Amino acid sequence: MSDVWEVEGGVDPRDAGGPNRGERATLVDYLRVYRLTLELKCQGLTPEQLATRSVPPSTMSLLGLVRHLAAVEQSWFRRVMDRRLDLPRLYGKLEHPDADFDGAVGTSECVDEAFATWRAEMAYAEEWVERADSLDVLGRHPDGDLELRDVLVHLIEEYARHCGHADLLRECLDGRTGQ
C-alpha cells in the first residue's frame, strides 16, 4: 500500500466539477470541501485509532476533532444564527472547554455518536444557509451581531486549521499523507 492518499475509485468526492459562481456558492463549496476532507482523513480507521491522542499533553485526536467540529457547527448555527445563545453547548463545552477532546474514547458507541452528531449539525447548518435570504443575515454573538458570511468564513478557517491537524494525526497512525 502506498503512503500517498488515494481516493477509492480514483474519483475525489470533493471535486464539484467546475468553478463556483458568486459569493455564497464559493463559501459553501469551500466549506463542503473541508468537511469532506476531514471525513476522508477518518475513513478506514478503527475506533481506537480514531481516538489515538497526538503528542502529550494534547488530547487532540481525529475523533476529538469530529466532536469539536460538531460543537462548532452547533454553536455557530443553532446558538448564534438562530439567536439561541441559551442553548446548552454540545459536550458541556462551557463547563469543560476540552470536553469534546477529552471525551473522545475508542469505542464504537463513541465513534457512532460523534459522527451522527457531526452529520446532524452539518445538515442543520447546510439547511440554514440554503434558507437564508442573503449572506447579510445577522446572528447574535456575545461580542456583537455577525453576518452569515462572517460565520461561513470562520467555519472555513476552523476546518482548514483542523484539517491540517488531521493530516498530521493520520500520518502518525498509518503513514498516509496527501489529499
TrEMBL record:
<dbReference type="Pfam" id="PF04978">
    <property type="entry name" value="MST"/>
</dbReference>
<feature type="region of interest" description="Disordered">
    <location>
        <begin position="1"/>
        <end position="20"/>
    </location>
</feature>
<dbReference type="InterPro" id="IPR034660">
    <property type="entry name" value="DinB/YfiT-like"/>
</dbReference>
<dbReference type="InterPro" id="IPR007061">
    <property type="entry name" value="MST-like"/>
</dbReference>
<feature type="compositionally biased region" description="Basic and acidic residues">
    <location>
        <begin position="11"/>
        <end position="20"/>
    </location>
</feature>
<protein>
    <submittedName>
        <fullName>DinB family protein</fullName>
    </submittedName>
</protein>
